[in-house]
Specification:
Blueprint: H1 2-16, E1 35-50, E2 74-88, E3 98-101, H2 121-127, E4 132-136, H3 148-158, H4 162-168, H5 177-185, E5 186-189, E6 199-202, H6 230-233, E7 269-270, E8 278-279, H7 282-297, E9 300-305, H8 309-321, E10 328-334, E11 355-359, H9 367-381, E12 389-393, H10 412-426
Parallel strand pairs: 3-4, 3-9, 9-10, 10-11, 11-12
Antiparallel strand pairs: 1-2, 2-4, 5-6, 7-8
Helix pairs in contact: 3-4, 7-8
């Protein structure tokens, strides 16, 4: 009976809110979504035998310290990648599935829906007849991470081996809330202030210290700034000192998506054909798993964003090394690295693979992306390759105000249409998966 009452209370809060007043359920989707199949699975991963999979429980209060127990070897699986998918009942377009890869400090959640509750790219692609696969990078989100290196580092510290602990304890990168704002959405003013003393203003604000040329100054960012958690605005339960101003930009729903880059707990690797040859954990595990996923699907188009841009290139190299380069049906790099030498590739590797690079407004253009596209197209012009490469700059197309997080912006579906149209035009048709 108690369980039944608890469930009823939870359902009441979910559909009426804390105040108890009825709220209309919000629809994220743009319409009914008819699918043939959906689910999730994992690809990749390796076994690891370690003495540090778990830690011994602390002694009971008042109990005498017990002698240290000998380590117990355990096996854990690390480096695997979580994949979720939806297959539409009716399939259109190029016919090949699309794999979507998020960037730094994010998970696949950024492709499912927007912070203000609109349809994301994942269901939108499915609605348009494209079998769609969304991943959490290896070491991130639902893919998990390797906790044993943290436990081993703690054990080394406890034994006095400070140097040994420093060698193994990972450093977790993370984009902070205010860091995301100043990197992509606006500025912290005045110059030299901190999150405790300054104010966050959007691009094109009157206080913008670095406005775009005159033609862009009137264009406000299209990021959903109205998606704010009012409980966070009040800073109820907040930890640490409060900012000097009650700035709603410090309470965006979007910030809840940001997580640590826990792939730093995984080992790195080396690549003799790459420059540099030493690869980070991020550029080791996710590229391997993406290549495996492409192989499992029998061919796919891969769409990367920001940090994962170089991962898409490393994936391409791995498919080439495995003799499966033909399974990559198209590669899209959004706001990411287009460097071919970094990942041991040449323009010839894209003779038969359509390539698209995209940059949004308020983001510096990339000479490297332009060079890569020009080099690929030069081979096409000389009849050495057949696939086309393109570099799209949204501001040049009149799509202004789009930020780095273009899949979450107000014009996210307009940009999705650009990607869908590009694949239909440039990717050769294939089997429906």
């Amino acid at each position: 009976m108690r369980c039944t009452r608890l469930v009823a209370m939870l359902v009441t809060v979910m559909f009426t809110g804390v105040s108890g007043q009825a709220q209309a359920p919000k629809k994220f989707l743009g319409g009914p979504l008819v699918i043939e199949d959906q689910g999730s699975f994992f690809v990749g991963g390796v076994q690891k035998i370690t003495d540090y999979a778990t830690v011994a429980p602390p002694p009971a209060p008042g109990a005498a310290p017990a002698p240290a127990a000998p380590p117990t070897p355990q096996q854990i699986t690390i480096g695997q990648m979580y994949v979720q998918f939806q297959i539409p009942a009716k399939k259109y377009g190029a016919g090949w599935p699309v794999i979507m890869v998020h960037g730094s400090t994010h998970t696949g959640a950024c492709l499912e829906a927007t912070p203000d509750g609109r349809e994301g790219w994942y269901p939108y692609f499915v609605r348009h007849g494209v079998p769609s696969y969304v991943v959490d990078q290896a070491g991130r989100g639902r893919s998990g991470f390797d906790e044993s290196v943290i436990h081993e580092g703690e054990a080394r510290l406890a034994s006095g081996n400070v140097k040994g602990a420093a060698e193994i304890l990972p450093s977790f990168a993370r984009i902070t809330d205010n860091g995301a704002w100043t990197a992509w959405f606006g500025h912290l003013v005045p110059d030299g202030s901190t999150v405790l003393t300054g104010t966050l203003v959007p691009h094109a604000d009157a206080r913008d210290p670095n406005p775009k040329p005159d033609a862009y100054q009137h264009v406000a960012p299209l990021f959903p700034l109205d998606a704010v958690d009012q409980r966070l605005v009040s800073r109820a339960g907040a930890i640490g000192p409060a900012p000097a101003t009650s700035n709603q930009t410090l309470a965006l729903e979007y910030y809840k998506q940001l997580v640590p880059n826990a792939e730093s707990t995984l080992p790195g690797s080396t690549c003799e054909s790459c420059d540099p040859k030493t690869l980070s954990p991020a550029n080791t595990w996710t590229p391997q798993n993406l290549a495996t996923l492409v192989e499992r699907l029998g061919g796919a188009i891969v769409v990367t964003h920001s940090q994962s841009g170089i991962m898409g290139h490393h994936m391409t190299r791995i498919l080439k090394e495995r003799g499966h380069l033909d399974l990559l049906k198209g590669l899209v790099t959004l706001e990411g690295s287009c460097s071919l030498p970094n990942s041991g590739l040449t323009a010839a590797d894209f003779d038969n693979i359509p390539y698209l690079a995209v940059k949004g407004d308020y983001t510096a253009t990339s000479p490297v992306c332009q060079e890569t596209v020009n080099t690929i197209n030069a081979r096409r012009a000389s009849k050495q390759g057949t696939a086309k490469a393109e570099y799209l700059k949204l501001d040049d197309m009149g799509i202004l105000g789009v930020t780095h997080m273009m899949m979450l912006d107000k014009k996210n579906l307009e940009i999705a249409d650009i990607l869908l149209n590009w694949t239909e035009k440039n990717v050769r048709g294939g089997r429906h998966r």
